[in-house]
Design brief:
Blueprint lengths: L2 H15 L17 E5 L5 E7 L2 E6 L6 E7 L6 E8 L4 E6 L4 E6 L4 E6 L5 E6 L61 E2 L12 E7 L2 E6 L4 E6 L4 E7 L5 E7 L2 E6 L4 E6 L5 E6 L10 E4 L2 E6 L3 E6 L1
Antiparallel strand pairs: 1-21, 2-3, 3-4, 4-5, 6-7, 7-8, 8-9, 9-10, 11-12, 12-13, 13-14, 15-16, 16-17, 17-18, 19-20, 20-21
Length: about 300
């Protein structure tokens, strides 16, 4: 290894070797009264995105290789439009860009899907930065579970759909996200036949802002800011814990939820540093997908409920 290479690696290390964040020392905005707005359209909501047309909800229950994506009214949860997206593997987090494309994290596959928001057609797939296996740190909270009774009866167990299970046929690892041009694919893309990127977990919550994708990734405890044009990571933010989930904008700051901490952490957009938190109780619905709309933070509990509270 030459000296220049060593210095390059050494300069990159602090971003990944940072000390764990002292969550209890973060300034709190105070308690919030969480309201259950309504049942989700399907049994297992896991990602939300607020738009002027309504609230998008992606469901992580896979039926015959498809997952439901619904656009609902804020007021009553009634479905405005709905379709199924094929090939998602534990979808968790979604956003929409100015061209009307939906971006959905396929968490267990380590992929990010770009879809048509009118019919759910898959337009492209990308490898998610930071995909891999998660780990625990000293003082991490235990894995949290929802305190609510499920809104829907349990589904009958079903065999995994062909080509969807990890390690199944239908494309395998399909590509490593290295550069572009192979087979006509763009930077970061993998073939549409790919079902997984690498062993482990990928992204959760995701937002789009000023031409960039912001996605929270479990294994590295980082949020990645990605330029979708060339699939280059612009910056990385250290997150509070091991179970980052939904994200949502408040002005020029981004709330990033952590399900195990049962809390929302507000990050400064320019530095990525945490400046504030909102702490829920173990009696509140458990946090999964997150978005912000009209002064309210909306989130879903994956046992079938859409919730909100005033910021």
């Amino acid at each position: 290894m030459n000296r220049r290479h060593f210095l390059t690696l050494a300069g990159a290390l602090p971003a990944f070797a940072a000390a764990p964040i002292d969550v209890r020392a973060i300034k709190s905005r105070g308690t919030r009264k969480v309201e259950i707005a309504y049942k989700s359209p399907h049994t297992s909501p896991n990602g939300l995105q607020a738009t002027k047309d309504g609230l998008w909800v992606v469901d992580d229950r896979t039926v015959d290789g498809n997952n439901n994506v619904s656009l609902v009214n804020y007021a009553d949860g009634k479905v405005i439009r709905e379709f199924q997206v094929a090939g998602l593997n534990q979808p968790s987090g979604m956003t929409i860009d100015p061209e009307g494309n939906l971006w959905i994290n396929s968490t267990h596959a380590g992929l990010i899907f770009k879809c048509n928001s009118q019919d759910g057609a898959v337009l492209a797939k990308y490898t998610c930065p930071g995909v891999g296996l998660g780990f625990r740190l000293k003082n991490d909270p235990p894995a949290a579970r929802s305190p609510l009774q499920p809104a829907y009866p349990p589904a009958a167990a079903a065999a995994p759909a062909a080509g969807i299970a990890r390690g199944g046929s239908g494309g395998g690892r399909g590509g490593s996200g290295r550069g572009g041009g192979r087979g006509g694919l763009g930077p970061g893309q993998v073939p549409l036949t790919a079902t997984i990127a690498a062993a482990g977990e990928g992204g959760q919550g995701m937002e789009y802002r000023d031409g960039l994708l912001y996605t929270a990734v479990l294994p590295t405890r980082r949020l990645y800011v990605i330029d979708p044009k060339n699939w280059e990571v612009q910056s990385m933010w250290q997150l509070a814990g091991a179970r980052a989930h939904g994200v949502g904008w408040e002005d020029d700051t981004l709330w990033v939820a952590d399900s195990n901490w049962r809390a929302f952490f507000r990050h400064d957009r320019s530095s990525g540093e945490i400046v504030e938190k909102i702490q829920l109780t173990d009696k509140d619905p458990l946090i999964h997908g997150v978005t912000v709309h009209d002064g309210y933070l909306w989130y879903c509990d994956d046992v079938g409920y859409i919730c909100n509270f005033k910021l």
